[in-house]
Input
Amino acid sequence: MKYGALIIETKENDNLIQMIGMSHNRKDETYQASVAKLLSELKDAKKLNADEMPADVVRLNSTVKIAFPDGKERTVTLVSPEKSDVASNKISILAPMGLALIGYAADDQVMWQFPNGLQAIKILSVQQTAPETKIA
Output
């Protein structure tokens, strides 16, 4: 791990734990394994204020380019569950991949249990995207 532990913004940490508690995926084994691993990692995570967050750490609304062991690459944006749209590469922060990536940084390799088995994914780059704002 680039920073020695997960890095997460304090308010995002609280919101993420709240979202996990309200999730409707509780019976899905892959989801449960992902949640358990993330909650374990969050215990030792470095929790920072928003202005202290490194730009290369994956967080809500980050656009992340990842590589799989087979050489395939994919770019996804982590979003809140209601904004998830797989066709547009917008992945819910509560999806197994979202749970896998949150708090890691560019150049980190992440071992995670996905529905098709344990996979190592490499984070190639992270770009911070401003959250969408509603116009009245």
Summary: Helices lie at 10-22, 29-43, 96-101. The mean pLDDT is 87. DSSP finds three helices and seven strands in the chain. Residues 78 and 94 are 9 Å apart (CA to CA).
